[in-house]
Amino acid sequence: MRRPGFPIAGVLTAGLLVAGCAGALGHADPAERLRPEVLAVLPHDPSAFTQGLELADGVLYEGTGLVGESSLREVEPETGRVRRQAELAPPLFGEGVTVVGDRIWQLTWRNGVAVEWDRSTLRQTRQVSYPGEGWGLCFDRAGGRLVMSDGSARLTFRDPVTFERTGEVVVRRGGGEQRRLNELECVAGSVWANVWGSDEILRIDPASGQVTGVVDAGGLLPADQAAGADVLNGVAAVPGTTEFLVTGKRWPSIFRVQFVPAGD
Q1: Residue 106's beta-bridge partner residues?
Q2: Which of 175, 183, 206, 236 is the most buried (most CB within 10 A)?
Q3: Which of 20, 42, 41, 37 is nearest to 29 (CA)?
Q4: What three-state secondary structure class fits 240?
Q5: Tens place of pLDDT for every residue, the chain, 264 residues?
């Protein structure tokens, strides 16, 4: 979500690798416990209020938020250089983004509008409306559908062309509903979602809504980089690998990671 100035949650150590906390999961939670293993540290614009992140064809697409600062960016992942940037005019507050062929969809928070962009020009092609809030978005290629979060425990499925709702699933962790689902990434039949205001990234089975894995990313951002940074927000799969790029709002770094068992 999006409250400016929200302090970064749960920075546990200055180290890059922190194991998951058994107490946070509870005895009834069957989800696999994971941690991020850092493979590389890449530069990231510390002024970017990151809301969505996706890597496609070697280009990193980043959606940023806040009224008057919202944008869609095309970024070089190795250098962090912004190649191109398109602005969202006020009062739009940008949220999650995802690539669908030659188009990019971008949500807005409370404006009830999804913006479709031409990927080659970064020009808006249309806007469509939806009820409620918009938080995270990803494209489930195998299922031919968009998956959208709105801060609740619900994931909504949408047609990638019309943006019409086609279904939904309630996400459950152990015996209870998992709320505050935020930035999303669809990969290999799973939906990965960070939990807003926490250091957790969840792996979700979109068929059942069950949380099957919990990544504790606490301490991913070293303490000496945390000043001025906000919460973790930004998860992008690296195509053709089992790796991910992970960052946060106003973070100076992007971390290339693998999610490995917490006991390793």
Answers
A1: 97, 115
A2: 183
A3: 20
A4: coil
A5: 444 433 333 332 223 223 333 333 444 678 999 999 999 999 999 999 999 999 999 999 999 999 999 999 999 999 999 999 999 999 999 999 999 999 999 999 999 999 999 999 999 999 999 999 999 999 999 999 999 999 999 999 999 999 999 999 999 998 899 999 999 999 999 999 999 999 999 999 999 999 999 999 998 999 888 888 999 999 999 999 999 999 999 999 999 999 999 986
